[in-house]
Amino acid sequence: MSKITVSFAAALAATMLACCTYKTGREINTAAINDVVIGQSNKEQVETWFGPPSNIFMMATGETWMYTSTKIDIRGSNFIPYANLFNNETDHTSAQLNVSFDRKGIVTDCSYHR
C-alpha cells in the first residue's frame, strides 16, 4: 500500500473514533442548590454559589435569574456520509436552574431541571 492510502486510512480511523463536544453556559453547581433557602437567601449569596446568571427576567414582583447549561457530545463518525444512517451517536445533556427574588432581593422560589 502506498503512503497516501495508509495516511488516509489512519485519518479516517481517527475521525471515526474522535468525539466533538459543544458546550454552552457554565456547569451548574448542583451541590449548592440545597444551600438556597426560600425566604432567607439573597442575590449576593446566589451569585457567590452559581456565578452570574445566563438570563435575568424582570417582573412586577421581582426578578428571576436563569442559569442554563448544555453539553452535546458528537461522534466523529456522524460526519462521514452514509456511515451513520441508522445510528446517529449524539449525547445531549442540559440543565436549568431558576431562582426568583422579591423586590428586596430575597429568594422566593428555586427550581432545577435536568
UniProtKB/TrEMBL annotation:
Cited Gene3D superfamilies: 3.30.1450.10
Keyword Cell cycle applies: no
Protein name: Outer membrane protein assembly factor BamE
Signal sequence interval, chain numbering: 1-18
Occurrences of domain Outer membrane protein assembly factor BamE (ranges): 27-108
Keyword list, A-Z: Membrane, Signal
Organism listed in the record: Defluviicoccus vanus
One Gene Ontology cellular component annotation held by this UniProt entry: outer membrane
One Pfam assignment: BamE
Keyword Plastid among UniProt keywords: no
